[in-house]
Design brief:
Purple Acid Phosphatase, chain A, domain 2; five-stranded mixed sheet; single chain; alpha/beta
Length: 167
Amino acid sequence: MRLLLIADTHLPKRAKALPDEVWRAVESADTVVHAGDWVDTELLDHLDARSTRLIGVFGNNDGPPLRERLPEIARAELDGLRLAVIHETGTTKGREKRCERLFPDTDVLVFGHSHVPWDTTTAGGLRLLNPGSPTDRRRQPYHTYMTAEISGGGLGEVTLHRLPPRR
C-alpha cells in the first residue's frame, strides 16, 4: 500500500495550488494523509475527489467549515498498521515520550504544524512523521512531502521528497 503524506498546505494563502508533482503522487497513492492547515475547503474537495482514500484532520489555521468536516485526530488501520493523524504534537522537547503516552495503540503518528520534516522512532517503537509543507517552507530550505509504503502491517520505506524551487 502506497501512502502520500502532506501537511500545512495553507491554500490559497501561501500558494495558489499544490505542485504538479504532488498531484501525481496523489494519483499513484492508495491513501493520502493530510495533517492539517488546509485553510480552505477547496483543496479538501479536490483531494477527496482525486484520492483513492483520504485521511485528514483540521489544523490551528482551519476555520469552522473545515472543522465541521474533519476531526482533530484521525485513526485508521491500513493493511494491519495502526495509523493516527494530528496537526499539533507540542514542542520538540519531550515529543517522543508525550506522543507515546497520548497514542499508545498506534504504530505511526503523522503530524504537521511546524513545517519542519521529522522522522523518528520512539523508544517504544512509535514512528513519528512530519512531511513538512509542499507549499510553505517557512525557514526550511525546501518545500517537502513524504511517501511511504505499508506491507504486512509494517511501515516500509519512507521517503522525504524535496520539491524544486517555485518560479
